[in-house]
Structures are given as structure tokens and as C-alpha cells.
Design goal:
The protein is mainly α and 72 residues long. It has 3 helices and no strands. The model has no long low-confidence stretch (mean pLDDT 91).
Length: 72
């Protein structure tokens, strides 16, 4: 079964899109991107039919955001 939170098409070209974005955005911009995705996935989770999947996606972005603070 394919990972629905981080599917293989996110890694085309042997680099994940999130890593490209982090490299191209400032720290502040990247943190805003992560925060926005947390808000997006949490607020729409109950309306899409698979709330657990969206909540896991929100958690993934929240963990990424936490990681950026730990790496300061």
C-alpha cells in the first residue's frame, strides 16, 4: 500500500519537492508555508471523507515546522 501522506510521486527526480521549497524559500517563508498547510489540513479534515489522512498530513507539516525551529 502506498504511503498516502508522503507518496512516491513527491520524490520524482530523487529529491522531494518540500526539500526544494525549503532550499529556495527564506526560513520565515518556509515556516509560513508549513503553518499554512497545518491550518489547511486541520480545518478541512472533517469535510473530505478521510479526516484521519488529512490530520496525519497536518501532523507531518507541524513536525516539519518544529524541525525548522530545532535546527536554529
Amino acid at each position: 500500500m502506498e504511503d498516502q501522506i508522503n507518496p512516491k510521486h513527491y520524490k520524482i527526480g530523487n529529491i522531494e519537492t518540500i526539500d526544494v521549497m525549503q532550499a529556495k524559500l527564506s526560513d520565515e517563508e518556509f515556516r509560513g508555508y508549513c503553518k499554512g498547510n497545518v491550518i489547511k489540513y486541520v480545518t478541512r479534515a472533517e469535510y473530505k471523507g478521510n479526516s484521519l489522512e488529512d490530520l496525519k498530513k497536518a501532523a507531518w507539516y507541524l513536525n516539519k515546522l518544529i524541525e525548522t525551529h530545532e535546527n536554529d
